[in-house]
């Protein structure tokens, strides 16, 4: 991936250094007096500011396309599984860490800072894991560690079995407060 980015950046640099218009003639529609003034005041070999902006925009577009291509190559839809975490309220549970296992293998572990946990309490959703699994039946188990009611240590697990088809699988791990039980509830739901 780095090789592709380096080659792309090198190609853009070579086009700019050669003085050839890389992305169409940027001088179209520019006042000739302004263009002549820019040519006279700019040092030799220095590209015009408009050309630099065009190169920056093209480079950003190229980078975006390469990131999308990399994700498609690394995580094809036929084997992709993504795991997300969300929280509701958070009065009965203070999150410290989450460990995710698929078919008994550890695939993700995350320790939360105070700011990260606060972002989840305020409605944020975190992508914990994106990876590949074979098509067929799988079991995901998530272990939640933190402080429960009355400040005591709390460790619970949520398990979900899912069938991986050709489409990507999305699994949401949710931590919700149960005011009826004065306990947190941990759930896992699959959507394809």
What report would you give on this structure?
A hairpin with a 4-residue loop joins strand 7 and strand 8. The chain has two domains: 2-74, no CATH class; 80-191, Immunoglobulin-like (Sandwich). The chain has helices spanning 2-18, 32-41, 49-74, 114-121, and strands at 80-88, 94-102, 105-111, 125-132, 136-147, 153-164, 169-178, 183-191. It contains four helices and eight strands; from the N terminus they run H-H-H-E-E-E-H-E-E-E-E-E. The strands form two sheets. It has a four-stranded mixed sheet. The chain has a four-stranded antiparallel sheet with strand order 3-2-5-6, with no helix packed on it. The longest helix is centred in the first third of the chain and has 26 residues, at 49-74. Residues 14-18 and 20-29 have low confidence and may be disordered. It is α+β, with helices and mostly antiparallel strands. Helices cover 32% and strands 40% of the residues. The protein starts with a helix and ends with a strand.
CATH architecture of the largest domain: Sandwich
Instruction: Give average pLDDT, whole number.
Output: 78
Beta-strand portion reads 35-45%
Helix content: 25-40%
Strand arrangement in the largest pleated sheet? 4-1-7-8
Q: What's the Cα radius of gyration?
A: 26 Å
- The structural class is alpha+beta
The total strand number stands at 8
What's the CATH first level of the largest domain? Mainly Beta
**Which term fits the overall shape?**
flat
Tally of individual helices = 4
What fold name stands as the CATH topology of the largest domain? Immunoglobulin-like
How would you name the oligomeric state of the polypeptide chains in this document? single chain
- How many discrete domains? 2
Distance N terminus to C terminus?
29 Å
Describe the largest sheet.
4 strands, mixed
* Helix and strand element order: HHHEEEHEEEEE
Poorly predicted segments: 14-18, 20-29
């Amino acid at each position: 991936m780095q090789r592709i980015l380096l080659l792309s950046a090198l190609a853009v640099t070579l086009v700019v250094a050669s003085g050839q218009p890389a992305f169409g003639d940027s001088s179209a529609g520019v006042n000739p007096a302004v263009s002549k003034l820019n040519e006279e005041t700019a040092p030799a070999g220095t590209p015009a500011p408009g050309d630099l902006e065009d190169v920056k925009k093209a480079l950003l577009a190229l980078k975006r396309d390469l990131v999308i291509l990399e994700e498609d190559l690394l995580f094809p839809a036929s084997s992709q599984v993504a795991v997300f975490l969300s929280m509701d309220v958070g009065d009965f549970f203070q999150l410290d860490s989450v460990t995710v296992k698929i078919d008994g293998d550890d695939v993700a572990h995350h320790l939360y800072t105070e700011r990260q946990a606060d972002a989840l309490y305020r409605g944020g959703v975190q992508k914990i894991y994106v990876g590949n699994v074979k098509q067929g039946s799988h079991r995901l188990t998530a272990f939640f560690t933190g402080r429960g009611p009355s400040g005591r240590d709390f460790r619970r697990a949520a398990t979900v079995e899912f069938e991986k088809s050709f489409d990507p699988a999305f699994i949401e791990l949710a931590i919700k407060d149960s005011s009826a039980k004065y306990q947190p509830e941990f759930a896992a739901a699959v959507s394809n």
